[in-house]
Amino acid sequence: MIPYSRQWVDKDDIQEVIKVLKSPFITQGPKVKEFEESIAQYCGSTYAVSFSSGTAALHAAYYAAGLHAGDEVITSPLTFAATANMLVAVGAVPVFADIEIATGNLDPRTVEKKITKRTKVIVGVDYAGLPVDISALKKIAKKHKLVFIEDAAHALGASYGKKKVGAHADMTMFSFHPLKSITTGEGGAIVTNNKEYYEKLLLFRSHGITKDTKKLINKKNPAWYHEMHDLGYNYRITDIQAALGVSQMKKLDFFVSRRGEIAHRYQKELENLQNFVIPKTFSDRTSSWHLFPLRLAPEKKHLRDFCFNELQKAGIGVQVHYIPVYRHPYYEARGYKKGLCPNAELFSESEISIPIFPALSQKDQTKIIKVIREINKQL
Ligand SMILES: *Cc1c(COP(=O)(O)O)cnc(C)c1O
User: Fold this and answer.
1) SUPFAM superfamilies annotated for this entry (predicted)?
2) Distance from the alpha carbon of residue 187 to the mean position of ligand 1, in angstroms
3) Less Cβ around it within 10 Å: N or C end of the chain?
4) Cα 79 to middle of ligand 1, angstroms
5) Distance (Å, rounded) from C-alpha 197 to C-alpha 47?
6) Which string of b and e fits 148-166 if b means at least 16 CB within 10 Å?
């Protein structure tokens, strides 16, 4: 079976992890700092704070943005559940705006229509690794005094305009789950240029406890003294993971270019199939190609599960990204209804993610293309 995605970990990654295991620090040592610096430098942001997962990083970003019970946050339904779940975790209300069918990304016009007096934050999601319409969303955020957060779990290594993803939003989240651009096993990060957010992210990551003498509420205390200022968690990444992350960051551009080559081959060799819609490339942004989301033509969407099964039968791993978040029973039980975001529902009903990852061989790509061409004839 060709998997739909797989991590790339090689000898020098393994060597770096072994070095840490033999060192005095296995958590929160020098490798965590080095990893954070390499992410910040790569993205062109001032600060990077690493976390135990992308989900933990989102939780921290929502805390740092100052979200409280009852605050509304506008986000995409075409995402992994964690984007919305962590909003619920801080007591905020996810408000789903519809997507553009061509990209799977938030449509800025639908976002603006959902703004109310209670709206505090917009969370854009870079679906499949293609940056969301950052300039339009930033303009809306500025006009209505909202914080703009980018869920770039798919998009480390992508760029928008002349800058990398991570250099644009108030806070940008990355995930280092094995199927994302780089991996640390589990892990995540927030990048930001804002010092106040940076300090809140650090506090939240470590139990809400500070040792910073300038920040202590009770002054004149001994050297060992520390204070807890807010409710926080243990969301720290280990030095073992960070060593893997530092080593993987060195290969990030190679990973992204390999994914790009595969995507361009698929685009070239699948574009004329009458029953499928192929993701496009854009001149103002580049994708990190986390996914290659194939879609059935709208009039053929009832054949999606047939195609899915045929691909699996031919030994090709496939996935559906995603069920619109509000269609999960948890959200339905909270009053979200079918029909809320028609484009996201149509996209979800017609989508199949086909294999794309740096180690996917030419031979396997050829097989995948051949099988899809054969399925196209049967529809
Ligand atoms: C993977 C992912 C997350 C969560 O990241 P984890 O590191 O798995 O916790 C959040 N949002 C999106 C869009 C993702 O794909």
Assistant:
1) PLP-dependent transferases
2) 10
3) N
4) 9
5) 9
6) bbbbbbbbbbbbbeeebbb
The angle subtended at Cα 295 by Cα 136 and Cα 181, nearest 5°, is: 65
Q: Which of 175, 290, 320 best tests ligand 1's pocket when mutated (most atoms within 8 Å of CB)?
A: 175
DSSP letter at 89? H
Query: Using CA positions, which residue lies closest to atom 6 of ligand 1?
Result: 54
Let me know if 180 is a catalytic residue.
Answer: yes
Question: What's the CA-to-centroid distance between 239 and ligand 1, angstroms?
Answer: 21
Task: State the fold for domain 252-378.
Answer: Aspartate Aminotransferase, domain 1 (3.90.1150)
Task: Tell me, in angstroms, the distance from the centre of ligand 1 to residue 274's CA.
Answer: 33
The residues spanned by each domain of the chain are: 11-249, 252-378
pLDDT at position 219 is: 83
Which uninterrupted H or E stretch holds 228? strand 227-228
User: What's residue 338's pLDDT?
Assistant: 98
Through-space distance between the first and last CA atoms of the chain, rounded to whole angstroms: 24
Model confidence pLDDT, tens digit, residues 107-131: 999 999 999 999 999 999 999 999 9
State the pLDDT at residue 242: 98
Q: Degrees (nearest 5) of the Cα angle 234, 45, 144?
A: 90
* Intervals of the chain under pLDDT 50: none
CA distance 333 to 68: 22
pLDDT score of 68: 95
Catalytic position from the list 31, 120, 138, 180: 180
Q: Which of 41, 37, 45, 35 is nearest to 167 (CA)?
A: 45
Q: Are 115 and 144 in contact (CB under 8 A)?
A: yes
CATH class for the domain made up of 11-249: alpha beta
